[in-house]
Write a structure and sequence with these properties.
The structure holds three protein chains of three kinds. By secondary structure, chain A is an all-alpha fold. Chain A is 81% helix and 0% strand. Chain A has a single domain, classed as MetI-like fold, CATH 1.10.3720.10. By secondary structure, chain C is an all-alpha fold. Chain C has eleven helices and no strands. The chains are: A mainly alpha, B alpha/beta, C mainly alpha.
Chain lengths: 266, 282, 259
């Protein structure tokens, strides 16, 4: 599927809604939790199906105390960070290369775009065969998931620097380092940061999926174990944690994005 | 002299008596801007006879467009009176049509569909609608383009289509809000001629807002000159020349020089100072 | 150089360099007897696997299965998403109630719901379909909402002028004006449904499908089969996206130029 199809919706609604205050963003989840607790209290669903948030909270607490939660989250975060950095750097370099060199673009982009058609998750079986189910596999899949959005965003960002700006630079006889530092980089940062944010969210999703499938630690694996042992409280604990982490990652990335591109919205 | 090409009227024949007499009395309009109340129209008094073509000119900010919105009924908050044929204007009505500076044709409909939708909520029998629509498309000179989408029409053509849509309900009063403002100079002259021809054929009452003084004088029986801040009528000029007009008529040029001089008067004239409420001495 | 690159024949040739190099490297690895030789399937075996999968019909079955799952999920999730998005944009109370809740749910990566859904509904095709529908739901919802919420005021004015009823306003203004964004939402929903299909097939392996085959082949160390499935995934995905774009262009033919 093309990159355009997977970009965020045309207008970022979450920004207008919840960036008014961080507290406002908490209201909805709290309401959700309250509804959840009430539904359980009403006895509508048997405990095999739904377990109240209070119980999930207890499970989380005991997992935290025993250090198990820390272990799982830590493992997941480690894989995410390492894979993300590798993939992002590779993506930046690749995207910049094909954006700046027509020859590189002609040579590399057809192959790149062909592979881009394959959902990253489909590479899991391939990578498992090559790398087994240990850390290298998970880091590799995260790197892969990060690589594509970052590469595309970098390419788009550089290519959409208006030619007119280059003309202005030539008229004022700007030296190359200044051209790169004062024109190119600020012009491309917004697109690149957006791509990196999207990549982060995607990488997190792919990691959880990979851990569900083949891992001995990590949030995904924690949920899968919970499922196999019919411990719905553990599963729900995992859902909550992965949701919180995903939310925090997204918000953090958006904050960085906004700080860096203040000039655009000033 | 002029054969009225209008199809059998969709309104009853008895209304042929007083069709489109507009009276505006002591009209005041204020907007609340950031807590302050800003007077946009001050003591507007205007009477338009049926079948008359009245132009309104003035600099930006004199409330011309606001005046039209009030008359067409898109805005109902005002003090004073607006009456069409004796009836108070409070909301929109098919009696009053309007053409905006941006044609506002629905991009997803063909020209024919756009014009026809004006008849959607009228009593006109469905069988007759196609014919009425075709007649009005012909009236504005767009035969052959019925199946075109708005993006396929040029600016001038789209504006003519908007005029057709406004006229197809045979409104008593036709309002034009800087209808030719978005067109280039050459197209503007052409569409002005078209507008004159169409109006002479239809003889609806027309109230046209424009910033182009020459256009106002060329088309109008009377020209209302407005001043800004707050918007008010400075004077009304009568043009006693028959239609179709000759652009070279000396009277038109003389009046144009006069009015332009007034509108671009030096800021020393206190009537032209921009006054914001609560900011004396700026 | 630029002149050379502008010739289509030259571009095609240059574009083939990278895949050609890659395939050569691959073949070398498969036959060189290095540490990973067991993993690299020689190109001939990939070709043989392809032929075999066609002959026993399983490739076609898989492609049809994944495609049907995606389209079914798109139909369910997409329809619900559009309906709810439009409704929320029109009736603000509904938006105020549901909006924040949906936003909160959206934070959890869909794949994270899989174990939970597995406990509730088992690990069969039903669960797969639910996840696929959910992944189609959110993009359809968000974009439909934006589409209707941002219908330009000036078109609504025209509706006022001609005395449109609420139904007319909906049918003649809101829906067509929102259609570009609604279709964007569906395009995204299709992409997400496709990915979710493959993902759930890999994770749950229920029924048949390209992902199921990939996962099964992985347990059997049959890289050649996996690769055939991957290539089929890429081509099928590209094709349905391309077809969808053609459909979208036709539906939006009233739009000026390339939008």
């Amino acid at each position: 599927m093309t990159a355009a199809a997977l970009a965020s919706p045309a207008v970022d609604r979450s920004r207008s809604r919840s960036s008014r205050s961080p507290l406002a963003a908490l209201v909805a989840p709290l309401v959700l939790v309250a509804l959840w607790q009430l539904t359980c209290l009403s006895g509508l669903f048997p405990p095999q199906v739904l377990v109240p948030p209070s119980e999930v909270g207890e499970t989380l607490w005991s997992l935290a105390l025993s250090g198990e939660l820390e272990r799982h989250v830590g493992e997941s975060m480690f894989r995410l960070s390492l894979g993300y950095v590798i993939g992002a750097v590779a993506g930046l370099v690749f995207g910049a290369t094909i954006a700046l060199s027509r020859l590189a673009e002609a040579a590399l982009s057809p192959f790149f775009l062909a592979i881009w058609q394959v959902p990253v998750i489909a590479f899991v079986p391939v990578l498992v065969i090559f790398l087994g189910i240990d850390e290298p596999f998970k880091i590799a899949i995260v790197a892969l998931a990060t690589f594509f959005p970052v590469a595309l965003a970098t390419f788009d960002g550089i290519r959409s620097v208006p030619k007119a700006w280059f003309d202005v630079a030539r008229v004022y006889r700007t030296r190359l380092p200044d051209l790169i530092g004062r024109i190119l980089i600020p012009a491309t940062i917004p697109a690149v940061l957006t791509g990196m944010r999207v990549a982060l969210t995607r990488a997190w999703v792919v990691l959880v999926a990979a851990e569900l499938l083949a891992a001995d630690s990590g949030i995904g694996q924690m949920m899968e174990m919970g499922r196999q042992m019919f411990r719905i409280d553990v599963v729900l604990a995992g859902v909550v944690v992965s949701g919180l982490i995903g939310f925090a990652l997204d918000r953090g990335a958006k904050a960085i994005e906004h700080r860096a591109i203040r000039w655009k919205y000033a | 002299m002029y054969v009225d090409p209008r199809p059998p009227s969709i309104s009853s024949a008895s209304e042929a008596t007083a069709r489109g007499a507009l009276t505006v009395n002591d009209l005041h309009k204020s907007f609340a801007i950031g807590g302050d109340s800003r007077l946009v129209l001050d003591n507007i008094n205007l009477t338009v006879k049926p079948g008359e073509f009245v132009s309104i000119v003035g600099a930006s900010g004199c409330g011309k467009s606001t005046l039209l919105r009030l008359i067409v009924g898109l805005d109902a908050e005002y003090s004073g009176e607006i009456r069409l044929d004796g009836e108070r204007v409070a909301t929109t009505s098919l009696d009053r049509g309007i053409v905006f500076q941006d044609h506002r044709l629905f991009p997803w409909m063909t020209l024919q569909q756009n014009v026809e939708l004006a008849l959607l909520n009228t009593d006109t029998p469905k069988a007759r609608r196609a014919q009425i629509v075709a007649d009005h498309i012909a009236l504005v000179g767009l035969q052959g383009f019925e199946q075109a989408y708005p993006h396929q029409l040029s600016g001038g053509m789209a504006q003519r289509a908007a005029i057709a849509r406004a006229l197809v309900t045979e409104p008593k009063l036709l309002l034009l809000d800087e209808p030719l403002g978005a067109l280039d100079a050459l197209t503007r002259v052409r569409v002005q001629n078209e507008l004159q021809r169409i109006w002479m054929a239809q003889r609806s009452t027309v109230l046209m807002v424009t910033h182009d003084v020459e256009e106002a004088l060329y088309l109008g029986d009377r020209v209302v000159v407005m001043a800004p801040d707050p918007g008010r009528i400075r004077r009304i000029v009568e043009i006693d020349l028959p239609h179709p007009r000759d652009r070279r008529a000396p009277l038109l040029h003389k009046l144009k020089d006069e009015i332009l001089a007034e509108l671009t008067a030096a800021p020393a004239d206190p009537a032209n100072l921009v006054r914001l409420p609560g900011r004396e001495g700026r | 150089m630029t002149a050379l690159l502008s010739r289509p024949a030259a571009r095609i040739l240059i574009g083939l360099i990278a895949p050609a190099l890659f395939l050569s490297w691959w073949q070398w690895q498969a036959s060189a007897g290095g540490a990973h030789a067991f993993a690299f399937a020689p190109l001939q075996s990939i070709g043989a696997a392809f032929v075999q999968l066609i002959e026993d019909g399983s490739l076609v079955t898989d492609m049809v299965a994944t495609l049907s799952r995606s389209l079914a999920g798109l139909a369910i999730g997409g329809t619900l998403g559009i309906a709810l998005g439009v409704a929320m944009a029109i009736w603000h109370p509904l938006d105020r109630v549901l909006g924040p809740l949906l936003n909160a749910i959206r934070q959890v990566p869909l794949i994270g719901w899989l174990p939970l859904l597995g406990l509730w509904f088992g690990t069969g095709q039903g669960t797969e379909l639910i996840v696929v529908s959910l992944s189609a739901f959110f993009p359809a919802l968000l974009n439909s909402y934006e589409g209707v919420a941002h219908v330009e005021r000036r078109y609504l004015d025209i509706g006022l002028l001609y005395g449109f009823t609420a139904a007319q306003r909906f049918r003649l203004i809101l829906l067509p004006a929102a259609m570009p964004l609604i279709l964007t939402g569906l395009t995204q929903a299709l992409a997400f449904a496709w990915i979710a299909s493959i993902a759930t097939e890999i994770l749950l392996s229920a029924g048949s499908g390209l992902g199921v085959t990939m996962q099964l082949a992985q347990t059997q160390q049959r890289l050649d089969i996996i690769l055939v499935a991957i290539i089929a995934t890429a081509m099928l995905g590209f094709t349905i996206n391309h077809l969808f774009q053609r459909l979208r262009r036709h539906l939006l033919r009233w739009q000026p130029s390339a939008l």
